[in-house]
């Protein structure tokens, strides 16, 4: 007798004795037969109990979502058309579920957002929600594989830091023994330092913290940042690597889960490479053509990006951002210092990555820090890494949640986050 998953039933001939465990999704007691719809992470099956008073008695006391173990015989041509069937010979209650359930797993009417996220573990049992996290993992696996094949070293940098990466107010302060410290907004400064440490290609997948107070469908206070940094590279090299990463992540998803996702209503589209590129100034032109007033040097708002994005199909880069809207470590263009060697990757109005070639001259770095109103002393640990031979380098930071949103066409970023952290939510 072997313990198997529901998906494995498809490989059986019929007549085998099996043991299978999962959640009792539904229990139906009829006159001549009792049915249990059993669910595991791979699907549902129908357990049939006939003429076994002991088993019927046990089944009748089961509550929905209790964890049970069934032994029985697999029936290839059972009565159920929609789910594989098992003729039950044994039922063990492994752990009962309390009643009432705060949230029904199969209820046709969706619970409201607060109820769902207050009871997230039940919400995640719904196949349509559960699959999102296998999909996210699959995208990440595609990217990890690519990065490793390309010779990148996966690193882990500190998340408790002494200075805010980007400056500004959007940083969480934490008590660190007798000092104050911050939760890192991005691994930017550390991954650059590793370039000087002789690791020419680094990548990191880790949490990034932003204390921004937005309540939008694309912002979290804690998100997963995929970051890379490459030595002896420029902004164009970084863009090509980014294109490949997005392509590989979505291709992996399509190959491994495309069909399964489709049965749950998700349609995956693998993007075509290369992604089109547009200069910041071309974006301004599009706005002007649409009678929107815009000042050179401002950042595009989401309303602006809606207009610009409506002209573009799928992923596209915006390049050549003015230095005012980019962080101090961004390299300026040689021919016109008003512009930087930077880019954002967009999907319609949603920004999913920003990147650039970085400054590698420590004197320029200090000048830029001052120009941005930051105190170079607070960044000395970082600037010192530039004093003893820092190669030219470039890189980017990509939000895994935003990429997952796009791949699955999901409107709200919280849906692709197991336990989202936002302005009002810090539990569960
Ligand atoms: P936005 O303008 O959308 O707030 P940003 O310019 O602050 O984003 P960056 O600091 O450039 O973003 O971060 C790089 C990437 O990290 C973004 O393109 C996005 O994918 C992701 N990201 C940044 N902030 C958040 C956030 N609050 N929630 C989720 N993802 C984020």
Overall description:
This protein is of the alpha+beta class and 428 residues long. The protein folds into two domains: 2-95, Beta Barrel (OB fold (Dihydrolipoamide Acetyltransferase, E2P)), CATH 2.40.50; 122-416, Bira Bifunctional Protein, Domain 2 (BirA Bifunctional Protein, domain 2). The protein has eleven helices and 17 strands. An eight-stranded mixed sheet has the order 7-11-12-17-16-15-14-13, sandwiched between helices. The longest helix is centred in the middle third of the chain and has 29 residues, at 235-263. The protein is elongated and about 85 Å long. The protein binds adenosine-5'-triphosphate.
Pick out its properties.
alpha+beta, BirA Bifunctional Protein, domain 2, 2 domains, 5-stranded mixed beta barrel, 17 strands, elongated, binds adenosine-5'-triphosphate
Offer a concise description of the structure.
The chain is α+β, with helices and mostly antiparallel strands. The chain is about 30% helix and about 25% strand.
Give the topology, please.
Elements lengths: L1 E2 L13 E13 L4 E7 L2 E7 L3 H8 L6 E9 L9 E11 L17 H6 L1 H4 L3 H23 L3 E2 L5 E2 L11 E4 L2 E5 L4 H9 L4 E9 L12 E10 L3 H29 L13 E3 H10 L12 H9 L4 E5 L22 E6 L2 E8 L4 H10 L8 H4 L9 E7 H9 L20
Parallel strand pairs: 1-2, 4-6, 7-11, 13-14
Antiparallel strand pairs: 2-3, 2-5, 3-4, 5-6, 8-10, 9-10, 11-12, 12-17, 14-15, 15-16, 16-17
Helix pairs in contact: 4-6, 4-11
The structure holds adenosine-5'-triphosphate.
The site of adenosine-5'-triphosphate (ATP) has 16 residues, from strand 12, strand 16, strand 17 and helix 11.
